[in-house]
Amino acid sequence: MTGRTAPKPYGPRVTEKKWWSWMRDRPLSELALADRGLHVVQDVGRDDPLWPGQLATLIALLLYLALPSQLTVGPGWPLPVSELAVLAALFVATRGGREARRRRAIAIGLVLVAALANLVALGRLTDYLVGGGAVGSPDLLGGGALIWVTNLLLFAVLDWELDRGGPVRPSAGDRPAAAPDFLFPQMSDDRFAPPGWKPGFGDYLYVSLTNQTAFSPTDTMPLTLRVKVLMGIQGVAALITTGVIIARAVNTLG
């Protein structure tokens, strides 16, 4: 025994001890990026237009309005109508490329509430089927398809809003640069990526689609706990929708 302390097999703790720290953006060190020849805005930050995410949220809320009344808690219109009002306010506040304070936090909260309501509708539909409710096959197929597409759009918007600190570049609003939440193939091998490539809404929509159809990540890997949790919830919801509800509806047709 020499009295020396054995080195720890792992490095120092990299996350804060507060339980909610895993939901925060991970800041990037500009000095570390400079050592690698990268620049925050040009190589890491994003500068996406906001309208694709706003349009996807609008479509998802309209789809929720079309759900059968049996799948909603109480009247089906108050929640989506109130969220449509908030979405319209955000659209006006950011019109012309302006960056509204708290826009991202409000948008994420709005989409989370809509996603939770859609998952509740999925739970009610599943419970109704298991309980032997006399629901016709068209209602099953229609309700299941609406829930499936709504989840696809809402989780795509969440991924788009969370990754790299959101769609607005770090220099806007004096926000620090944030580390990526997803590892896209273009980030691992830039030989096949266009110069200056950055992910756009279409990339996050594709990630949401592949996760929802394969029930797991495919070519794009999650890097942070928050997107792993979201992708897990989305995959389970898609599995229930596809494997239980739609399958039951198709069997009823026979």
Low-confidence stretches: 9-16
Q: Give the N-to-C terminal Cα separation.
A: 76 Å
Q: SSE order in H/E notation?
A: HHHHHHEHHEH
How big a fraction of the residues is strand? under 5%
Spatial order of strands in the largest sheet: 1-2
- Domain module tally: 1
Descriptive account of the structure:
The protein has helices at residues 30-35, 40-44, 51-65, 78-93, 103-130, 137-162, 185-188, 201-214, 225-253; strands at residues 182-183, 221-222. The protein is an all-alpha fold and 254 residues long. The protein has one domain (39-253). Strands 1-2 form a two-stranded antiparallel sheet. The longest helix has 29 residues, at 225-253. Mean pLDDT is 80; it is low at 9-16.
Short description:
By secondary structure, this protein is mainly alpha-helical. The chain has helices at 30-35, 40-44, 51-65, 78-93, 103-130, 137-162, 185-188, 201-214, 225-253, and strands at residues 182-183, 221-222. Strands 1-2 form a two-stranded antiparallel sheet.
Question: What's the arrangement of secondary structure elements?
Answer:
Layout: H1 30-35, H2 40-44, H3 51-65, H4 78-93, H5 103-130, H6 137-162, E1 182-183, H7 185-188, H8 201-214, E2 221-222, H9 225-253
Antiparallel strand pairs: 1-2
Task: Fill in the keyword field for this structure.
254 residues; mainly alpha; single chain; globular; 9 helices; two-stranded antiparallel sheet; 2% strand; 56% helix
